[in-house]
Amino acid sequence: MAEPSADIRRILIIKLSSLGDIVHALPAVSALRATYPRAQITWLVKRQWAEILDGNPDVDETLAVDFGLRDWLSIIARLRRSRFDIAVDLQGLVRSGLLAFLSGAPERVGFAAGREWSPFFYTQRVNLSSEEPRNWRLFPMHAVERNLMVAAHLGANVRQVRFPLPSLSHDEKEVDLWLQSAGVQQGEKLIAIAPVDRLAVRSWPLDRFVAAAAALSRQPNVRIVLIGTSGQRWVAEQFLQPVGNKLVDLIGKTRIRQLGVLFRKMHLVIANDSAPMHIAAAVGTPVLGLFGPSSPYQSRPIGEQHAVLRTELPCSPCGRSVCENPNHLECLTSITVNDVVKKAEELLRRSSEYR
């Protein structure tokens, strides 16, 4: 671990997207805050995801931006006015590397194996291993660990992994009101299900989510809490009849920052490899993650209270956005409803240990 630099007073963090990746960057920024308690830390993020940083004690300023053609000049001007001592690129793409360069920061840190020529813009390149393999399938380092190595390069102590996701009081009240309105009683076990990922190739079949939810809802004192975006209202209709009055439909209700508040009240969260899974794991709620083409080594929920279901195949994990297996999405369809129900019941029995 390097020694902290006394010259670092203004730090720019560049992690633009997506939501799950931003969550994975939180521990690194937390470690930097502990190491540089007097520094001004600014986080540059896409506007649509900025809400996850609301109330974050480790961030002094959030620059929420859009990236239309007309926005670039104003973004660069805002960055240069801040006179950053260092820009830390945790995105590792050409756009984020270019933003680090255009910020005017004299020191720019990023991954030596960053994609799209991003390392060209850095003054300091962090090697994640001595061999620096380019094939991510041969490099099973978790995203959180990669980001922490950048923090360690800047002198941070990275032995503690913290995910600061504060609960704002008005969000607490609103979430409590939703659950009360749904008739949730004290002592009921709440299982949150996030059945749709933004990438269809990472989504376990919806009819299997419905069947698993119906089976779990038949257990005494179990309620199923359904979450999703406002554009996924059609999903709730699939659960209504099979789950019946055991269903708490919150699709389209929760803001991004309210997900952490909601998940803290759950006994279990079942989700694809997606942002809800990462947020639930970050707040410490037991998670059952369903993995197909993405690598659990890179993005599994961190903690002993969680579990992952996946199928070993020669083609998985492939990391592709389009399935090329003749047996379409075999990595996901080979996970059965019984597999999910059995593992969920096991986690549910253990969940009281972590609450």
Textual characterization of the structure:
The chain has twelve helices and twelve strands. Helices cover 34% and strands 15% of the residues. A six-stranded parallel β-sheet has the order 3-2-1-4-5-6, with helices on both faces. It is an alpha/beta fold. The radius of gyration is 21 Å and the shape is globular. Residues 130-139 have low confidence and may be disordered. It starts with 9 loop residues before the first strand and ends in a 5-residue tail after the last helix. It folds into two domains: 10-153, Glycogen Phosphorylase B (Rossmann fold), CATH 3.40.50.2000; 169-354, 3-Layer(aba) Sandwich (Rossmann fold), CATH 3.40.50. It has helices at 19-35, 72-82, 94-102, 143-153, 169-181, 206-217, 233-243, 258-264, 275-282, 296-299, 330-333, 337-350; strands at residues 10-14, 40-46, 61-65, 86-89, 107-111, 124-126, 189-194, 222-226, 247-249, 268-272, 287-290, 307-309. Helix 6 packs parallel to helix 7 and helix 8 packs across helix 9. The longest helix is centred in the N-terminal third of the chain and has 17 residues, at 19-35.
Largest sheet: 6 strands, parallel
Mean pLDDT: 92
Report the total helices.
12
Structural class: alpha/beta
Q: How do the strands line up in the largest sheet? A: 3-2-1-4-5-6
Give me the CATH fold name of the largest domain. Answer: Rossmann fold
Full CATH superfamily name of the largest domain: Glycogen Phosphorylase B
H/E series = EHEEHEHEEHHEHEHEHEHEHEHH
**Helix fraction?**
25-40%
Tally of strands: 12
Q: Supply Rg.
A: 21 Å
- What is the global morphology? globular
Strand content: 15-25%
CATH architecture of the largest domain: 3-Layer(aba) Sandwich
